[in-house]
Design a protein that fits this description.
CATH superfamily of the largest domain: ANL, N-terminal domain
Strand content: 25-35%
Helix content: 25-40%
Number of domains: 2
Number of helices: 11
CATH class of the largest domain: Alpha Beta
CATH topology of the largest domain: Rossmann fold
CATH architecture of the largest domain: 3-Layer(aba) Sandwich
Strand order of the largest sheet: 4-3-5-6-7-8-9-14-13-12-10-11
Largest sheet: 12 strands, mixed
Structural class: alpha/beta
Shape: globular
């Protein structure tokens, strides 16, 4: 592999032993910082009976408690604006972002100048891994305001030297015009928007998205681009290579991303973030090896403003490998969904993204759009699982399609489903994150 294949070759191709030694040393310094500067962690460690001397090796991290999103929200409610977990002076905070949870109340994340530089470098590395190069003209068709992957993506894309075109959301007309006039080569957006925009172009401009000349679609913010049937449809619609990235509002905008081999998202945060996989039920650490599935947990290694230790992301992931023809040594994974979106049908875990994958596999008889209907709060759902799916206008035998899809859901996910087929265009389209669950009990 030539040097042009990597943004930071030394760390991207470093041996696991080198990375472990680096993380061990950095985590020690981060713990010193937490014990000295974070009231939140001082109280947390004291309650757990943990002293700084209890950490010597990376494996000692397992002795330390997890941090949850609920704790961070409570911390900010008690001690606004950035919570008891702020560890820098408020005067040193140069920017804030936020994530909106199910309550709708924003949870703020602060950055010092050094934090922002770290985010830029890590996010740039993740884009570069996906194939971003200096010559690219990138349409940013995602959030630009408090969204963590908005301004940070701008900084990262400019860091690589590519041209950043800040379109934002809800501006398909402007996005189309910019693609045509600036001869754009790439677009950064959610997979939901990429699907919506292709339909919009066909309907409103009487054009095919694949004729616009985009070569690269950088997708993220939700599972989707990694779902085989969804990816195939996007690549067909756009005639472009589709890669995905994964990040976290509280840790960094993009931490994992796919190389052009598209065999899973590489871990790109070696010197900034320590990643663990745990059993979401009992909290036990799992080995980083192919085939392991669990919840992703992050620990900051070089954060000033709001450093987090063992933060539970609620992202359910499967490790796909620890090596790659591209030469990167960061392990690869796929995100299958969020544990807080997961449904349980007669003891079987079901992720909405898995149902979407099955329905999408019936294209062109289906459009791939679905909603799972809940008549009472989850995660436990009484069978059958109620699924609404769109059929394509050209589909003539709806009873046969219904039977086939229900049979495949049963065979693949081992749960019974009741499918309600509706005409194409019935279900809502989303310009940011798609909503695959519809609550009928509120």
């Amino acid at each position: 592999m030539g040097s042009n294949e990597y943004l930071d070759k030394e760390i991207e191709t470093a041996s696991p032993k080198y990375v472990q030694r680096l993380q061990e040393a950095k985590l020690g310094k981060q713990l010193d910082y937490l014990y000295a500067r974070s009231v939140f962690y001082q109280e947390k460690f004291q309650a757990a009976g943990l002293q700084r001397k209890h950490y010597r090796r990376v494996r000692d991290l397992e002795r330390f408690p997890f941090t949850t999103k609920e704790e961070l929200r409570e911390s900010q409610a008690i001690c606004p604006p950035l919570g008891k977990h702020i560890a820098a002076k408020i005067d040193d905070v140069i920017r804030v972002h936020s994530s909106t949870g199910t309550t709708g109340k924003p949870s703020f994340v602060g950055l010092t100048r050094r934090d922002a530089k770290m985010w830029t470098k890590l996010t740039a590395r993740s884009f570069y891994t996906q194939g971003l190069r200096k010559q690219d003209v990138v349409i940013h068709a995602a959030g630009l305001t408090l969204f963590v992957a908005g301004l940070s993506s701008k900084d990262a894309i400019e860091h690589v030297g590519a041209m950043f075109v800040p379109i934002g959301t809800g501006a398909s007309e402007k996005a189309l015009m910019a693609i045509q006039l600036l001869k754009a080569t790439a677009m950064h957006c959610t997979p939901s928007y990429a699907a919506y925009f292709a339909e919009w172009i066909r309907r409103e401009a009487q054009l095919e998205a694949r004729d616009l000349g985009l070569k690269k679609l950088f997708c993220g913010a939700e599972p989707g681009a990694g779902i085989p049937a969804v990816r195939a449809k996007l690549q067909e619609d756009w005639g472009a290579r589709v890669t995905e990235g994964l990040g976290n509002a509280d840790m960094a905008p993009i931490i994992f991303s796919e190389c052009p081999h598209q065999s899973g998202m590489h871990f790109n945060g070696q010197e900034y973030v320590l990643a663990e996989i745990i059993d979401p039920d009992n909290g036990e650490s799992l080995p980083i090896e192919a085939g392991v599935s669990g919840e992703l947990v992050y620990t900051s290694l070089e954060r000033e403003c709001v450093p987090l230790l063992r933060f539970r992301t609620r992202d359910r992931v499967t490790i796909l490998g620890t090596s790659c023809p591209c030469g990167r040594t960061g392990f690869k994974l796929r995100c299958v969904g969020r544990t807080d979106d997961m449904l349980i049908v007669l003891g079987v875990n079901v992720f909405p993204s898995a149902v979407k994958d099955i329905v999408s596999s019936f294209r062109p008889r289906t459009t791939g759009e679905i909603q799972i209907i809940l008549t009472e709060p989850g995660p436990r759902v009484a069978p059958p699982l109620k699924v609404v799916a769109e059929y394509a206008n050209s589909c003539s035998d709806l009873p046969a399609l219904k039977q086939e899809v229900e049979r495949k859901i049963k065979a693949t996910l081992t749960v019974a489903a009741s499918l309600d087929l509706v005409p194409a265009g019935t279900l809502p389209r989303y310009e940011m994150k798609g909503q695959l669950i519809k609550k009928h009990y509120e």
